[in-house]
Design brief:
Layout lengths: L1 E9 L2 H12 L12 E3 L27 H6 L4 E4 L5 H10 L2 E4 L5 H5 L2 E8 L8 E15 L6 H6 L1
Parallel strand pairs: 1-2, 2-3, 3-4
Antiparallel strand pairs: 1-6, 4-6, 5-6
Length: 157
């Protein structure tokens, strides 16, 4: 278990697709991926007095087609829920990145660990826009580590 503090970025399916398209044509990305963490989330609108609405994780497998390319471009961590495919796991091990899982169904609770939220790219995507979040002790579990190990497999054994 870990408690993540600092800057992380949000991105879901459409933002991942746009990032990979830019990588494919050699164009500059709207955010620097090197050393960063992306949270697979499409938060709801913020209530009055809050910086963000409910912010629960999206199913990670939806990003499997894009993740190896983003990891190769320098991404060091991802936060979501559920399993990742073999290509993602191989990229994690090859490039020394990790995949975290956090509590599905607890978006309102998780939003309390987010102290700021700012759209930084793809505003036209609405909830799927890329946001820069500042998080304080955001709860997560390392489910796939940088050596290719899986807590899912270890737990089963």
């Amino acid at each position: 278990m870990v408690a993540i503090s600092g800057v992380i970025y949000t991105a879901r399916d459409m933002a991942h697709k746009k990032l990979c398209e830019l990588i494919d044509v050699g164009k500059e990305l709207p955010i620097k991926l090197a050393g960063q963490v992306i949270y697979f989330v499409g938060p709801t609108p913020a209530r009055k007095g809050r910086v963000i609405g409910a912010a629960g994780p999206t199913t990670s497998a939806r990003m499997d087609a894009f993740s190896p390319k983003l990891i190769a471009a320098g991404l060091k961590g991802m936060i979501g829920k559920g399993y990742r495919n073999e290509a993602v796991r191989a990229a994690l091990a090859k490039y020394g990145a990790v995949h975290f899982s956090t509590i599905g169904g607890a978006g309102a609770l998780l939003s309390k660990y987010i102290s700021s939220s700012e759209v930084v790219a793809y505003e036209e995507l609405g909830t799927e826009a890329i946001r820069k979040l500042e998080v304080v002790e955001f709860p997560a579990i390392v489910v796939y580590d940088a050596q290719g190990s899986s807590v899912y497999e270890q737990g089963t054994k």
